[in-house]
Design a protein that fits this description.
single chain; mainly alpha; 4 helices; transmembrane helix; membrane
Length: about 70
């Protein structure tokens, strides 16, 4: 278990860096518009919350995972 945790701690920051890069390449307004067009209000709110967290601190999702 300790070995698995050590491996995950090595992989996760790298993975989240690339996820952050991918999300920064996609225009936020375009995704918000698509989600709005599908009338997925809850999903849109979650996405907007994610983008706000990402702009405040890029490792926001990683910190959230540590909290939960």
């Amino acid at each position: 278990v300790a070995m698995l945790m050590w491996i995950m701690m090595g992989i996760l920051p790298w993975a989240f860096k690339w996820i952050s890069v991918l999300f920064s390449l996609i225009p936020h307004y375009a995704i918000a518009f698509i989600l709005d067009a599908k009338r997925e209000g809850e999903l849109r709110d979650i996405y907007l919350m994610f983008s706000e967290i990402k702009w405040i601190f890029p490792q926001g999702i990683f910190i959230l995972m540590l909290v939960f």
